[in-house]
Amino acid sequence: MAKEELLEFEGTVTEVLPDGNFRVRLDNDHQILAYAAGKMKKNRIRTIEGDRVVVEMSPYDLDRGRINFRHKAEGSMPPPGARRQQNFRRR
């Protein structure tokens, strides 16, 4: 197996931990600790509890992984047109 080969699994986020970590239950009922990939942080993709995700794992450490994709779901995104109110003072 080459050094660059990563294992990909699908799972569900069960807990959001501090410092950008997530507890993920994989489809094969293993529970791992995962972090968001750099592109997800860069593009501000929010991951919440209950989201379906794709996790990349190294074959050397099967207890940690990197979340590199979040599947779109009905309840995970705000409805179109609903934006946060910005509190700016006008002069």
TrEMBL record:
<dbReference type="Pfam" id="PF01176">
    <property type="entry name" value="eIF-1a"/>
</dbReference>
<keyword id="KW-0396">Initiation factor</keyword>
<feature type="domain" description="S1-like">
    <location>
        <begin position="1"/>
        <end position="72"/>
    </location>
</feature>
<keyword id="KW-0699">rRNA-binding</keyword>
<keyword id="KW-0694">RNA-binding</keyword>
<comment type="subunit">
    <text>Component of the 30S ribosomal translation pre-initiation complex which assembles on the 30S ribosome in the order IF-2 and IF-3, IF-1 and N-formylmethionyl-tRNA(fMet); mRNA recruitment can occur at any time during PIC assembly.</text>
</comment>
<dbReference type="InterPro" id="IPR012340">
    <property type="entry name" value="NA-bd_OB-fold"/>
</dbReference>
<keyword id="KW-0963">Cytoplasm</keyword>
<comment type="function">
    <text>One of the essential components for the initiation of protein synthesis. Stabilizes the binding of IF-2 and IF-3 on the 30S subunit to which N-formylmethionyl-tRNA(fMet) subsequently binds. Helps modulate mRNA selection, yielding the 30S pre-initiation complex (PIC). Upon addition of the 50S ribosomal subunit IF-1, IF-2 and IF-3 are released leaving the mature 70S translation initiation complex.</text>
</comment>
<dbReference type="InterPro" id="IPR004368">
    <property type="entry name" value="TIF_IF1"/>
</dbReference>
<dbReference type="GO" id="GO:0005829">
    <property type="term" value="C:cytosol"/>
</dbReference>
<dbReference type="GO" id="GO:0019843">
    <property type="term" value="F:rRNA binding"/>
</dbReference>
<feature type="region of interest" description="Disordered">
    <location>
        <begin position="71"/>
        <end position="91"/>
    </location>
</feature>
<comment type="similarity">
    <text>Belongs to the IF-1 family.</text>
</comment>
<dbReference type="InterPro" id="IPR006196">
    <property type="entry name" value="RNA-binding_domain_S1_IF1"/>
</dbReference>
<dbReference type="GO" id="GO:0043022">
    <property type="term" value="F:ribosome binding"/>
</dbReference>
<dbReference type="GO" id="GO:0003743">
    <property type="term" value="F:translation initiation factor activity"/>
</dbReference>
<dbReference type="InterPro" id="IPR003029">
    <property type="entry name" value="S1_domain"/>
</dbReference>
<keyword id="KW-0648">Protein biosynthesis</keyword>
<protein>
    <recommendedName>
        <fullName>Translation initiation factor IF-1</fullName>
    </recommendedName>
</protein>
